[in-house]
Specification:
Strand order of the largest sheet: 2-8-7-6-5-3-4
CATH topology of the largest domain: Aspartate Aminotransferase, domain 2
Strand content: 15-25%
Bound molecules: pyridoxal-5'-phosphate
Number of domains: 2
Helix content: 40-55%
Distance between the termini: 42 Å
Number of strands: 12
Shape: globular
CATH architecture of the largest domain: 3-Layer(aba) Sandwich
CATH superfamily of the largest domain: Type I PLP-dependent aspartate aminotransferase-like (Major domain)
Order of helices and strands: HHEHHEHEHEHEHEHHEEHHHEHEEEH
Amino acid sequence: MKSTTLGRRDWLKAGLGLALGSAFPLSLQAETKQYLNRVHPHTGRWMLEEAPVALKARLTSNENPYGPSDRAKMAIIHGFKDANLYSRTVAIELKSKIAAYEGVRPEQVFLCAGLSELLNLVGAVTGLEHGDLVSAHPTFDLMLTTASAIGGQWIKVPLNKKFEHDLGAMEKAITAKTKLVYICNPGNPCSTIVDPEELSAFCSRVSKKTLVFVDEAYNDYIPDAARHSMVSRLRAGDQVMIGKTLSKIHGFAGLRVAYALATTGFIKELEKYRTWDFTMNAPSMHGALATLQDEEFKQYCVMKNREARELAVKGLIALGYEPLPSYTNFLIFPIQKEGKSFVQVMQNQGIGLRSWYFNDKHWCRVSVGTSEEMQLFLDALKQVG
Ligand SMILES: Cc1ncc(COP(=O)(O)O)c(C=O)c1O
């Protein structure tokens, strides 16, 4: 591997690069360009070792094109004053702010560097116990694949005809071996939601038998989001765990801030396995403190997302596609072409997106970017046919 140590001239160029608004120092651009914007055509995972593809629109990973807010950016810059210190103090402050915001106690908050970190951890703990994990299928499978790799059993319950969680069938799949039920609401890759009253009743019944994990990564995009959040079940004393991330509505995907809420007992259990102290960095946590309660920014993102999503839905329907209802910042629809080659031809048009295969169909999942990006996506789709 080539050394990346920068000399004085490099730093001057780097400064110039930043002043010109480029994301990378000039001297490193040529070197790094070849690693950028490349996703695996099937899994959608970033392939850092691969050749370059310049994307006009990166619509692969449900990122928020409007974040972080200016307020968060300023807080992050100021947060660098703490960058030489282990981040315990600001983490404690963030925990208590989250607790007050969510109406729980600080001991019920688990901070993590992205929800992925927590999903992996919970998957590993459950997998090590060789337990069963029940989830819908398809779903966001990180926790489930980690658990399966380590010795857990993933019990997949197909979504119903409306591509929503089939709560009745999921409840029937629970046995004495079940350690956890994973609910992703709104779903991913299917962007649907479950009826909040049904889900609440499900949580309250099922949590008496096993832990219910509700992944609320996209909750903020649902109109009347609070009614759909299962934090209310936790406040009522149920054995539920709720995963929340700032990657989506707050646009923090690259800053890695997320948290889980659960009973004090379960948080204590998880703390035993976590990476020493806190994995999150101080500047990001300062940013999180500034953005957490910024309702104006959240509403702005929800509104812009709705606008761009409606434009894309209209365009897709005009082209004969049938997207599922979406309560998220992405759309999914069946395609005629084979998924991998579809992703490849769209990538050749400069549009990054992902494909799935389920219910005997190939599907395209496209993130909702800006309206301009969605227009580029529709134009490319017209070309590809
Ligand atoms: C449903 C769901 N949960 C969790 C995550 C992981 O989010 P984070 O960026 O916080 O790791 C994602 C990311 O796309 C997601 O879609």
